[in-house]
Design goal:
Blueprint (H helix, E strand, L loop, with lengths): L1 H13 L4 H46 L4 E2 H15 L4 H4 E9 L8 E8 L30 E9 L16 E7 L9 E2 L24
Parallel strand pairs: 1-6
Antiparallel strand pairs: 2-3, 2-4, 4-5
């Protein structure tokens, strides 16, 4: 009986049938994790790139106008921002701000001239402030000369994971802020053109004309 048992053991030891299936069973979870993790990382990276592109586009296109900005232009820019982030939805899952800031020089703080915003995530605040128009600190501590005007665009979006919800903190949106210098001081006000104005984001600030005087 021992001879037969030893013979069976030797035969089984040399039998490699099904070995590849066993190896596959051990490696498949790792392969699936690497594949899905790679997809999630690629999707997250794309979301960050889209948010950065939106902020840069909004600030650049707003500042490019040689004669200031119209209410209808602001509306069109917000719609274009949602198209840029497609198939993601920055207006549904985030918040966009366009702000004009006037420099106060070394003795007076920077002030918000006007601000427009859109997006359903109203709890995402503006990085440079939305309620107080004095002592505005620009990104990277950019210093403005007295009466100089700059356009600040902020794009923020809550990331919606494809698979791994636990790896992402939903309370921290992806955010990028871009600062561009416009061509003229006419950016002190938004020109009304009959188009419904977007939300002023809670800013109750004094509007200024091209010469820096309140209007």
């Amino acid at each position: 009986m021992m001879i037969a048992l030893n013979r069976l053991i030797r035969r089984l030891r040399g039998d490699e049938r099904g070995l590849s299936f066993v190896e596959l069973a051990f490696t498949m979870p790792v392969l699936i994790l690497l594949l899905t993790g790679g997809l999630e990382l690629a999707n997250y990276t794309m979301a960050r790139m889209k948010v950065t592109r939106v902020a840069t586009m909004l600030a650049d296109l707003t500042a490019q106008s040689p004669v200031g900005v119209l209410e209808s232009q602001i509306t069109d820019l917000f719609l274009a921002a949602n198209m840029v982030t497609s198939p993601m939805d920055i207006l549904g899952d985030g918040r966009i701000y366009i702000t004009a800031v006037r420099g106060g020089g070394t003795k007076v703080g920077n002030s918000i001239l006007w601000q427009r915003c859109d997006g359903d995530k109203v709890t995402i605040p503006s990085k440079i402030g939305s309620s107080d128009n004095k002592n505005v600190v620009l990104p990277l501590n950019i210093a403005l000369e007295e009466n100089a005007i700059t356009v600040v665009a902020q794009a923020s979006m809550m990331y919606e994971p494809l698979l791994f919800d636990g790896l992402f903190n939903e309370r921290e949106p992806i955010t990028h802020v871009a600062v561009y210098m416009p061509r003229s001081l006419s950016f002190g006000v938004i020109t009304a053109d009959g188009s419904p104005a977007k939300s002023n984001c809670g800013t109750n600030v004094t509007q200024y004309n091209a010469n820096g005087y309140p209007v």
